[in-house]
Design the sequence.
């Protein structure tokens, strides 16, 4: 048992041809899945995944006999992984700060890495849901603002400077400030990006088109550019690898710190935030509070699957927006800094709408206007 990012590190570190992670990631206990890792330590691309699935479901590869399996060896990956994480932060600075940390791995495998890394960083560590148990008895394995009451109570009871919650396979992390407030992943990612760019000005950062404008704000302030990707961690990671980008992240708490590996890593993200807190000497609420604030909203519009492509085309032709991004669905940016993303659902006959603006009214207006536009295009196409 080990976190997905630790396996990914191990595949690359030990020069293996690939890796298979058996995990349902952030999903409930009745589910399971397999994450396929390439020899570079990063999940295989979507195309490669499709090839593997075609092979598997097309009768599968030929099975070898029981005595033809070859060597089976065990490797200790956890210890080299922890050392690698620590090598990417200023251990002395964090130790000197004497931070108090509350950790909630949600009974997932981050319990095998996060508490020991925080201890190595000289933190006083408090934990909840730390025993690894795939039935996830403590909370859902996806950390969300509505299921982190246990962690918030622990932060308060222990007087911790920060709380960190992880998903089931330890690649995502969500942060709680010293006052017990849960902050969504786009803000912790923005904090990491701002700090990284202050020390590495001009760095490009990869993030899905659905990410908050706060990412763009901190990246452009640091002289870098945002490279937009399709929604999905594999797309961000593979874009980073292909374009040599060293920092990436998602709003759901997946931070990809390329100097270690271009994959989401909850324990690495925790170490980075602890380092930022230690060097600044300021409370997390203050650090996050000074980032720009935006209102966000979501909506949906019914649309038959077979006309989705044409609807997007029509919409693109009929809307006047100074900024248009088509890497995944249609993202329209307006002069006041607001934006809306129209994405076809992969599973339902609907478009999903995501909007962000300086005020809640503007968000509602954007969603209402584009919903009406899409409805009229759908109608005109019969
Ligand atoms: Mg996960």
Sequence:
């Amino acid at each position: 048992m080990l976190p997905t990012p630790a396996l990914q590190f191990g595949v690359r570190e030990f020069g293996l041809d690939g890796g298979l992670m058996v995990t349902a990631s952030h999903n409930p206990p009745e589910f399971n899945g397999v994450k396929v890792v390439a020899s570079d330590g990063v999940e295989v691309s979507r195309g490669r995944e499709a090839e593997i699935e075609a092979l598997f479901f097309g009768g599968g590869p030929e099975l070898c006999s029981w005595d033809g399996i070859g060597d089976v060896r065990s490797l200790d990956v956890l210890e080299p992984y922890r050392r690698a994480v620590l090598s990417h932060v200023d251990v002395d600075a964090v130790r000197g700060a004497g931070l108090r940390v509350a950790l909630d791995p949600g009974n997932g495998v981050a319990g095998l890495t996060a508490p020991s890394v925080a201890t190595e960083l000289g933190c006083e560590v408090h934990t909840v849901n730390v025993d690894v148990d795939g039935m996830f008895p403590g909370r859902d394995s996806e950390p969300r603002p509505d299921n982190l009451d246990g962690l918030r109570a622990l932060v308060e009871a222990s007087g911790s400077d920060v709380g960190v919650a992880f998903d089931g396979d330890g690649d995502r992390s969500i942060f709680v400030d010293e006052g017990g407030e849960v902050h969504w992943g786009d803000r912790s990612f923005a904090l990491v990006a701002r700090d990284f760019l202050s020390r590495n000005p001009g760095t490009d950062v990869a993030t899905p088109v659905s990410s908050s404008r706060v990412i763009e704000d901190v990246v452009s302030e640091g002289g870098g550019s945002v490279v937009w990707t399709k929604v999905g961690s594999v797309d961000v990671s593979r874009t980073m690898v292909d374009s040599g980008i060293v920092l990436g992240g998602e709003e759901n708490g997946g931070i990809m710190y390329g100097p270690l590996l271009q994959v989401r890593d909850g324990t690495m993200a925790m170490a980075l935030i602890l380092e930022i807190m230690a060097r600044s000497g300021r409370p997390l609420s203050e650090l996050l509070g000074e980032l720009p604030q935006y209102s966000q909203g979501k909506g949906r519009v019914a649309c038959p699957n077979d006309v989705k492509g044409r609807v997007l085309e029509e919409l693109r032709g009929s809307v006047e927006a100074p900024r248009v991004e088509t890497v995944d669905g249609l993202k329209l940016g307006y002069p006041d800094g607001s934006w809306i993303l129209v994405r076809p659902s992969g599973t339902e006959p609907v478009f999903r709408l995501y909007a962000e603006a300086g005020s809640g009214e503007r968000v509602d207006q954007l969603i209402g206007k584009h919903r009406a536009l899409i409805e009229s295009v759908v109608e005109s196409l019969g």
User: Anything to note?
Assistant: The longest helix spans residues 360-380. The mean pLDDT is 96.
